[in-house]
Amino acid sequence: KGKRAFIAGVADDNGYGWAIAKSLAAAGAEILVGTWVPALNIFETSLRRGKFDESRLLPNGSLMEITKVYPLDAVFDNPDDVPEDIKTNKRYAGSANWTVKEVAESVKQDFGSIDILVHSLANGPEVSKPLLETSRNGYLAALSASSYSYVSLLKHFIPLMNPGGSSISLTYIASERIIPGYGGGMSSAKAALESDTRVLAFEAGRKHKIRVNTISAGPLRSRAAKAIGFIDTMIEYSIANAPLQKELSADEVGNAAALLGITFGFGYALVPSYMSITVSTQWVLE
Ligand code: NAD
After folding, report:
1. Which of 155, 202, 244, 264 is a good FRET partner for 83, with 20 to 30 A between their CA atoms?
2. What is the pTM of this model?
3. 139 is catalytic
4. Residue 118: which of 203, 217, 47 has the closest Cα?
């Protein structure tokens, strides 16, 4: 029986979320996506008008089908959390049921269960500021959107995940090493995400037989990365220092995600070229 995946954080065809969706689709999974509310309109319009058709092409010649696109804002857990200015914001008022709890409920209603949950989203409003110049609000916003959002997604989706299911997020090496320019508390947010992966893997593994992993991906010229402002430098650095001296393609990360989501059972680690996948079940055992 085919697996069903929910991928949070797809709003165009340039990011890791899209590439992961494609790899999972190529491996036979049914694809549902969660798209940030302010980006929903343009994403759905572009999809409908065929703007992504070329990049929907799968290795077997067919086009990836996205069964359903859900509006999502992962910084809000339920409707009570949503402040008035967002509720009445033109871009939000046009969509409904986009808090994490409501999205999980909608997916349950529509499909009953999922097997794979992917968190491919991050946001740090002050990412271009050094940590020393980051405000408390900017720091907390980065953690809310980029770290707690994963805790929240898992918490609300676990009840509809089939045992043996798998969950993946995307992290970045700035959590462990100093990467000047990855500011605004984003390095802190990735450190939290990685630490939480270990704890969540233990809790979700013991309680629900769900695997929780994170992929530490190399630099990719996505929309989010371009907003940081030094992505070209990151890519050049990578090419200069990586074992395979070439630009990382999003598909490589997509395939790693499919491996973790579909192929493997518990506990496996692999380091293909310059992208490391660290499987949390191993961290727990270390
Ligand atoms: P991307 O722009 O394709 O994806 C980020 C997505 O997050 C966007 O679709 C955006 O709409 C969404 N988003 C932002 N705030 C949201 C919210 N509150 N609720 C729901 N969605 C929200 O960029 P990407 O670089 O592919 O990012 C995906 C993941 O990969 C992120 O976790 C990022 O930190 C990670 N990552 C990226 C790189 C890189 O170089 N691009 C490297 C390592 C890790």
Report:
1. 155
2. 0.94
3. no
4. 217
